Amino acid sequence: MKAAVYYGLDDFRIEERPLPRIGEYEVLVKVRACGVCGTDVHKAVHHTVEDGTILGHEVAGDIIETGREVTKFETGEKVVVPHHTPCFACSYCHHDHHTLCDQYTKTNIDPGGFSEVIRVPQPNVERAMLSFDHIDYEDAAFVEPLACCIHAWDRLVVFPGDTVLIVGAGPIGLLHLELAKTRQTEVLVADIKASRLQQVEKRGGIPLQAREITGLEADIVVVAAGTTNAYELALSSVKKGGQISFFAECPPDSQIALDPNVVYSKELTFTGSYSSTPRGHWKALNLIESGVLDVKQLISHRFGLEDLGRAIKMASRAEDCLKIMIKP
Ligand SMILES: [Zn+2]
Ligand SMILES: [Zn+2]
User: Which tens digit of pLDDT belongs to each residue from 22-40?
Assistant: First the structure.
């Protein structure tokens, strides 16, 4: 099978790899669509993964082989494949921090989704993988990024009528916009790029030029851009008693200045939100399958494996692109 292998931002290579061998409780999936995620871009740009890594984790595909003991799924089924799965039994899991579970990042798909075929480990098959029917592979590949956004919203306290500021109008910011609308909130979306703000208006949000914001008072701020400027904007735009969702990953060793008296006197709440949970995947698939959320319009480009490097660079510049789908 072919895979797009990372050796540097300017060096993705198509390599021939042996087909993964599955155990009795595992399945083999032919990848049909895998979205390029901001975290793939982050890993490639900041070289936080080793040479030879195969990235990609927003996977939808077909089961082409099942282990002897697999009872939940059959060959031929279309599935959304979660790349990690918690144990549901540890202290983190019991505190609803499933993404912090020690088992979580150890249960990885093999290799990443930017390859023709992947092996799905037993915990993922048994506790998190979902089959689908009425939507296409591209829509299904949005389940993981949408589930990440849902995880952030599950950690916020939201009242209808609240004012929500989303910082960042990329594909993730726009997914947050869609979720904010389902919660009957007033949604403002800030970005520094005018081209991205056009999408906000089309989708029923209020676009704001990030550099020009002053005196805003939002009940909830969701940071969907991985820069310290974005977090500083959140801190200066949150209302007394408000909440900030720390959603986007910044470059390593980033720092923001924080006056503890502001948090104290304004009674601010900060919620961190990392990755997605099986419950989030289930909710995300429901929202997409039922047509509550139209994700198709968020796709701006489609590439094969051979153009992964180009796709990641395009996403890193965040110019004239939204979601990029890789179709192995
Ligand atoms: Zn992702
Ligand atoms: Zn656990």
Answer: 999 999 999 999 999 999 9
Structure tokens given for 153: 């919203």
Ligand 1 centroid to Cα of residue 267, in Å, is 31
Residue 318 has pLDDT above 90, yes or no: no
Q: Domains of the chain, with CATH numbers? A: 2-148+275-326 (3.90.180.10), 156-272 (3.40.50.720)
Report if pTM > 0.85: yes
Cα of 172 vs centre of ligand 1, distance in Å, is 9
Average pLDDT for 199-222: 95
CA angle 28, 30, 33 (to 5 degrees): 135
Give the ligand at the shortest distance from the Cα of 145. 1
Nearest of 69, 149, 204 to residue 323 by alpha carbon: 149
* Ligand 2 centroid to residue 124 C-alpha, Å: 13
